[in-house]
Amino acid sequence: MSTIKKTVIKDFEGRKIREYLKEELGLSSRLIKGAAIDKRIFVNNKAVKMNYVLKENEEVLINLCKEESQNITPEPMDLDIVYEDEDIIVINKRPNMVVHPTKRYQSGTLANGLLYYFKETNQKCIVRLVSRLDMDTSGLIIVAKNQYAHMELSKDMSQNNIEKRYLSVVHGNLENMEGTIDLPIYRPEGEGVIGRVIDERGQRSITHYKVVKRLADRDVVECLLETGRTHQIRVHLKALGHPIYGDTLYGYEEDSEIIGRQALHAYGLDFKSPRTKKSLSLRAELPEDIKKLI
């Protein structure tokens, strides 16, 4: 069971439990309301209402698990689980896999596989994505198992406290071995438009890069995202004149004969556990199709 348990200190004696949950535990009003309705908030092992007045040294416990469902069909799937605890699961997503069902892809998505895994391991969880990857990008994805973990990690993501590292293989050799790309990315108007462009009307977008391996006609480039725009790395590397191999949207269509998708892999995540604040540093090995390029 995923729970948060804490002993009341003197500073909160005489305060209502609602205030304690918001101020001491940092829980959102929405999470508190849902837990209160479901009677998942306890003091000394007894369910309490939100007007309960606390005493020093009482034990407060909130059960983060609740009965939830998603309109997604569970499907058996071979998942590469890099890390798992009671709050999160981190998956090394294979290439050519959609993360969440869409009108076009109702089956075979990561969410389908995760729901099956949760069911088989008796975990009452739905899929709460903290990070996402394009269908053809492989690598690490964080999924929260409960509302609290999702809230905390989403906040960390918005405050740039989750470090996301990627490896890509690009056409040609970059002029500088390392640097920062600070160019705004804009989504052009129009129905069905997928690609993004560099345009002053867009959002500020920052990518730090470093060439980690140089070959005669290509570079292996590590990218560290400071912002997280759609297609950010792909658009920024194209702007430097060095599109990613296999990226037929921003590069060359003939690349599809060399590699069947963009050579982009989310290999590293550094962040803190939402509950314990323990530092986590997770890595995922390059998949075989990218290894063959280098």
From TrEMBL:
<dbReference type="InterPro" id="IPR020103">
    <property type="entry name" value="PsdUridine_synth_cat_dom_sf"/>
</dbReference>
<comment type="function">
    <text>Responsible for synthesis of pseudouridine from uracil.</text>
</comment>
<dbReference type="InterPro" id="IPR050188">
    <property type="entry name" value="RluA_PseudoU_synthase"/>
</dbReference>
<dbReference type="InterPro" id="IPR006225">
    <property type="entry name" value="PsdUridine_synth_RluC/D"/>
</dbReference>
<dbReference type="GO" id="GO:0003723">
    <property type="term" value="F:RNA binding"/>
</dbReference>
<protein>
    <recommendedName>
        <fullName>Pseudouridine synthase</fullName>
        <ecNumber>5.4.99.-</ecNumber>
    </recommendedName>
</protein>
<keyword id="KW-0694">RNA-binding</keyword>
<dbReference type="GO" id="GO:0000455">
    <property type="term" value="P:enzyme-directed rRNA pseudouridine synthesis"/>
</dbReference>
<feature type="domain" description="Pseudouridine synthase RsuA/RluA-like">
    <location>
        <begin position="87"/>
        <end position="238"/>
    </location>
</feature>
<keyword id="KW-0413">Isomerase</keyword>
<dbReference type="GO" id="GO:0009982">
    <property type="term" value="F:pseudouridine synthase activity"/>
</dbReference>
<dbReference type="InterPro" id="IPR006145">
    <property type="entry name" value="PsdUridine_synth_RsuA/RluA"/>
</dbReference>
<feature type="active site">
    <location>
        <position position="134"/>
    </location>
</feature>
<dbReference type="GO" id="GO:0140098">
    <property type="term" value="F:catalytic activity, acting on RNA"/>
</dbReference>
<dbReference type="Pfam" id="PF00849">
    <property type="entry name" value="PseudoU_synth_2"/>
</dbReference>
<comment type="similarity">
    <text>Belongs to the pseudouridine synthase RluA family.</text>
</comment>
